[in-house]
Structure formats: structure tokens, C-alpha cells
Amino acid sequence: MSRTNPPVTARRRLATAISVCAVTAMAVSTALAAAGPVLAHPGHGDRGEDFPAAPASRAATAPIKADPDETAALGKEHAEEHARTRMAIAGVGEYPQTTRTERLKSLTDSQATGNAAFDAAEFGRFRDYFQSPDFAAHIAMLPTGKVLLFSFERIETNPQKEPAPTDTIGKENAGRAFLWDPKLGTGPTAFKEVKPPVVNMPDGKNEPRPAPFFCAGHSYLPNGMLGVFGGNLGGNGGSGAKLSLVFDPWQEEWYLNQDMAVGRWYPSVVTGADGRQVIMSGQSELGWGTPTSIVERFPAQSVPVPVDKTAKPIGWPVERLKTEAPFKWDYPHLFSLRDGKIYGLGRASDQQWLFDTLSDTKSDLPPRPDGKKRNYGSAVPLPAGFRGPDSVLVLGGDRDDPNTYRLAGGKWATEKPRAFGRTQDDTLLLPNGNLLTVNGAFDIRDYGNGDKNPNADLKYRQVELRDENGDWKLGPAQRLPRGYHSNAVVLPDGRIMITGDELQQLANDPDITDSMNGSIEIYEPAYLHQGSRPSLGLIFNPSVGYDEKITVSTNTPNDVTRAVLLAPTTATHSVNTSQRHLELRIKSRSGNFLELQAPPSAAAAPPGHYMLFLLNEEGAPSAAGWVQLKPPTAGATRGKP
């Protein structure tokens, strides 16, 4: 998020100072005169004469809140007149509803026209598009089947400005969160607000507000809860908060824990083989340009790893490790691979490290072969059978470089390229082991036509698909271009939920005056359009230890050729440390029952909740059931190399 001034609070202070009619009239006259050339500016994408109507209409119909001091001095009617005037001044030059409406219509029409050429059985298709109450700068697929969306309370509705309170100090610097339940459909009643804990941030304002946890890092605990670390203290271009929170999907509430040792703005978090979360990087509480090298772990070793859903991490400590991670740039990619160690892949090509949290040591990995700093872009641990991933594909973050880079066995190799380079992209592992890239942009807040210009190069709307041979192909286009703060998750029914990017959501809002300022679209991969799918019935032992048997039922036993575990996604800023794809060995078949074998160790698959899919020969998955891999006993977290 870029540095901003808090225009809302500034306008309030200015408006309160206007207490005489002559000054008010002069302000209106001056504002409208200055607005003339702005309203006619072709960069706003509409005819100049159409622009004044929307702000004036909103000011006339919106609820009026008069200043109490003015009401006492001037009377209610006169004070309300002043309030309307201030609203008109604030509205001049903003992004009009007419443009938002026409933009969304244009994107809807072009999507339908362009996608008509794509066969759904080969490329998949986009189906649902609906409004959401949150921007979803952060997302998490929960083991309850619901999706957690969280971000910030906006300070702007104009997509040509920064809507997040990055530099705001005080109560307007606040977080918000919602749950979407796909079983309840796509309307407003399918969403439930889950307010963050109220905190009094150490910013000197003494203004308690919902925790400003946006631009934090997160990963899952073994009991299915989501640990969230860091956030926005406010000021100085983005100062790190010391916040440590947990979201409980079972009770649908947030828990506040002890502060971290250092503030973190844009940190990364990964769950290791021992079930504990490792936290690295982020700008400190001193503000932008002060990345921390401190490594921390949650929960501290003094607290058992939470396994049962009844365990409530409230007031738990975070502990500092001896090893340091001096990443120059925020949001590095972190992955726990099959050797049980954590691979830290920094955005700078020469900052690639291997961390051993058991011995609390760090060693060097070779530099990435592109030799450049990469922006926010995706990276994925590639499937490698039932023993867990042993390589990572880095494939986003450079608008000029379509190549993909694979780290395996301590060595880098250049893999097959995508059609073009893109930043801010999101790449997901699908149940069949293929990859799907959605979203993307030219740069942060730039879609190819300059900073904070919502008009985007249309190529960034196209998805891209990677098959089992590593070959890429472009597919259909999503409704909105989505770049910075875009997100996507695989749903348990095999569909893909795509959301995020507050600027594009604001620029295409069908009604900016309501509370549904976000949007969600659903992509159906090709495997949902290739005929019948296997069925998954009961999972008889959904909580299981490593290398143990998992018994399931199915009404289509003859169609099942594979069984896989797919880790749920939690992501932000193109960083997704939780993804994982494992094949499950089918040990025996008896009628409508299959006996599967769980992964061999916590190094193969860190403890936690996974989606279990049954697949047929064509790679079409069943709807998923949930399996919890329980943490092993102490000393048994490492699998055989």
C-alpha cells in the first residue's frame, strides 16, 4: 500500500471550521470553478458533462449529519445546509457512479464475447459473479467449508486514490473480517461479519478500534485455526504492528495473543513440520524501510501445539529464535518441504536461504538465475507423490519475464515460460496436480496504463493453465482485472473462488453507496465439464496419524484411480505458504470401500486439515471431505530424506 494522506479526517476538520455562510458560499464557488477542467479530463473515461450529476445526486439523497456546534449556533435547518455543502465539496472530482456502472457493463460484455471461443471441457469457464462485503486483501479456506475474508475499513471510494489507511493514525486505522458460506449461496445473507478484537494501538491516540491486521502474514495451526501476525500500526509509509491473533473457525471468533517482539508490516508465515508457525520479515514499527531480520515462532515451545478444536489460543506467547532472516524485501516465499526444513525464497535473487528450526540454523541456497528483484508474484511447491513436495516453482513478480524457475535439490533450473510476465498473480494447485494462474497486473496499482488508473491491459484477465508436462496455455478471461491484493482459493467442490483488489472492486461497484463494495467470481476448471465425477461418501476416521489407514466409502469405486490430499489456501499479496498436493496410496478395495494410507511423516505433510479428493482416470475430482493429520509425538517430525 502506498503512502496516503487521510483525506476523510482532514475534510472533517476543515468542514467543522466553516461556520459562516459567506465562507461556505465562497468555498462552493471555488470548488466548482476548480472542478471544471478536472471533470472534462478525458482520463476519467466519461463525458465531462456527465460527471457532476453523480456527486450532486449522492449529496442530495445521502443521510445528513449536521455538526452539533453548528446546530446549536445556527439551527438545525441551517446546519444541515452547511452539511450538504460540505458533502458537495467532498464529492467534486470523485469517481462517479456512472463510470463504475459503465465499466462493469463493458467488462461483462467483453468477457462474454471473448470467452465464447473457449470450450469449457478444455479450458473451464467462469460462471458466477456477485458482490461481497469485503475487499479480501487476505483470504483463508477454512476446514468448516467457509471462506474467511479480511482487510481494512476504507478511507476512500475513489479508485484513483489509496483506499487503505496505511498512514492513518487513530480509530480510522481499523480491520474488518467476514465469512462467506458457499452453502448459503451468493447473496448478502451468505456473509457473516466476524469482528476482530478491539485493541488500543500504541500510537498515542488512545482510540480503541478493531485490530488493524491488514497486510499481516498467516498460516494454519494443526487444529484448523488461522494464526495472523503483524498488521498496520499506521504512519511513516507503513509501520508494523506487533499483533498476534488467531481465528477460530469452529467458534467463528478471534483470539488475541501476546505481542510479538517486533512490529511487522508485510511479514510471511509458514507452518513447519512440528505444527508451529514460523514468522519472518516485515517492516518494523519504525516504518517503511526498516525490515526486521528477527525470526519468531508461535506458539512458543512452552505451550503445546494446539491439536483439538477445543484448544483456544488466548494470550499465548510468541518466542524469538536465534537465527536471523535478513530479507531486504518484505513478503518472501516460505515453504516447508519434505526434508522438514523451511525454504526462504526472497524477492531479491541473492537472498535464498534454508532454515532448520530444530537446530535453529540457516544456510545459503544458490541465487535465483534471473538475477533480478521480483515484485509480488506467485510460487508453488510442486506435487511429488505421497512423500510430499521437494521442489518449488517461482513464476510471478516480473512483468518483463515470462519464465518460471524451479528450485530442486539445491539447484535452480529455468522451466517452461508462461505467455507473458505478470506481477500480483495467484497460482493455485488443483486437485489433479495441474496449476492455474489467475489475476495479475503490470505493477503495483498499475494495470498497464499508469499508477492507480483502473483501465487495464485486457491480457491480465486471462487465466493460464499448466498441465502435467509443464506446458502452459491461456484460457478464458475473468470479469475484473485483479492485481494488487488479489486472491483465490480452491473450494471443496473443486471450483475456484477469485476475489480481491480493492481498486478494481471500487472502480466496478454497481452501487458505491451500499456496504457490498467487494466482489467474488467463480471459475469452474475443465474437469467439471468432462462428464461424470467420482463420489466420496463417508470418511470413517477423519482425524488420523501419519502412515495410518484412512477408510472411505464411495458409490463409484470402479471410477476411482487416485486419491489426493490438497491443503487449503490462505494467501495475501501473492504469497501462499500453505499450498500442498499429496498422492495417497490406495492400499485395498472392498466393494464400496477404499483403504488409503496417510502420508508417511509430518515432513511430507505438516499437521493440520486437508481436503481429500477422489479422482477418476481423466483427473476429474469428487467433492472433497476433510481429514486432519495429527501432529506426531516429540522427535518424530522429520521423515526420511
UniProtKB/TrEMBL annotation:
Q: Where is the composition biased (Low complexity)?
A: 52-65
What InterPro entries is this protein classified in?
Gal_Oxase/kelch_b-propeller, Gal_Oxidase_central_sf, Glyoxal_oxidase_N, GO-like_E_set, Ig-like_fold, Ig_E-set
Question: Where are the compositionally biased (Basic and acidic residues) regions?
Answer: 360-373
Q: Name one Pfam family in it.
A: GO-like_E_set
Could you tell me which residues belong to the region Disordered? Answer: 43-65, 360-381
What keywords does the record list, in alphabetical order?
Signal
Presence of keyword Transcription regulation: no
The processes (GO biological process) annotated in the record are: carbohydrate metabolic process
List residues of the Galactose oxidase-like Early set domain.
533-628
Signal sequence span is 1-33
The chain positions of domain Glyoxal oxidase N-terminal read: 411-527
The reply on keyword Signal is yes
Q: What is this protein called?
A: Galactose oxidase
What is the originating organism of this protein?
Streptomyces lunaelactis
